[in-house]
Amino acid sequence: MAASLPAPFLTRVHYYDSPTRYTCAYETGVDGAPNALVVIGGLSDGPHTIPALIKIAPRLDPANGGPNYSIFEIRMRSSYVGYGTSSLEEDVVHIAALVKYLRSIGKKKIVLCGHSTGTQDIMEYVNSDKQSIEPVDGFVLQGPVSDRQSLELLRSTFPDYDFDDTLACAKQFIAEGRKDDCLPRSKVPPIFGNDPISAYRYHSLAAKGGDDDYFSTDLDDDFVKRVWSSFTKPFLVLHSAEDEFVPESVDKAALIEKWRNVNTLMSPLSGVLPGANHTLDSDEAQKGFGDKLVEFLSTI
């Protein structure tokens, strides 16, 4: 098992002002690069939990023909097991604080790169009306998966578990003014392990129209047009052909095309990565993603 772990690598730690004390970001790659790629992970992710993205850092080095970016991994209150008691809205405040810091140290171009639920953070970022939101220069959405439809897939994996009962419990807590209370452990689906999860966050992930529900295939057209038209900078969208969290019935290419028709700022490089699972584990997936990312960043 140890042989499959990533090799040791060097990183630079940046402390910066944010709503959470002692918040820091970890920089990997070119020391002194003028541009920053900010990586935002999914549920239970945090710095260094997405090895596939870190492996791409050398390709951003101008010495290797790259576009001269370093990678910043953000540690938020929602990182690791904190996701269950946090929200996209809270994440956006933390991300904006890092962007502000990166501007203060002279970064010229800043691109947000979301993985999995990190792509929902990006959707929230571009649709936020908060005055504190800092502008960036581009966006990458890798693995934009519907958590609600992913949970539906799990019904066959856990046939004895009552997912409807969990959602009903979350709704009851919210109706009683207890949205921030964590659900009883007996009500938390096995996929979440022993992680604490509030009524609000479970409802946000599992209910149609929940705050996390940006990518489901059955969303109203007006909503889809509103949220995707909010991008005012170039953005790259990459689905994985073999994403284990997407129902087989979903036509990923058609879904991306639907989003593209709303906003022409979507990069023509957007599409479906062949041979890729959700976390880009294979060499083919990592090379395909790296090729697209380097080319996209070169156009910003």
Automatic annotation (TrEMBL):
Pfam families: DUF1749. PANTHER family: DUF1749-DOMAIN-CONTAINING PROTEIN, UPF0613 PROTEIN PB24D3.06C. This is Dolichol-phosphate mannosyltransferase. It comes from Pseudallescheria apiosperma (Scedosporium apiospermum).
